[in-house]
Give the backbone structure.
Amino acid sequence: QVQLQESGGGLVQAGGSLRLSCAASGRTFSSGTMGWFRQAPGKEREFIAHISWSWSGRNAYYADSVKGRFTISRDNAKNTVYLQMNSLKPEDTAVYYCAAAQWVGRRYATTEYEYWGQGTQVTVSS
């Protein structure tokens, strides 16, 4: 089993920045994928970004809505994934969830991820 714990959410003004962290514990994998999703009130959970790693390297993928503003990264030694969020907009307000899976590639559906964190609230004021 893998446990995921998010942190770093909060309240920020439009144009500001936040960095979310997701620490994984329990079983670890030499290759896999960790990603971020978000869910705003009344909306479905949507893909934001994910990073896959394997012996051949890492690859990151982003939703069009955050490309150029958000950056996902991973610290292997800490088994932690980060989401640096810059130029935040009020429409970025949501609960942000960390997710993990054992596959390597490009998949965006929530059903593709086996493990989930509890979520952290991000609120962007105008």
About this structure: The two ends are 40 Å apart (CA to CA).
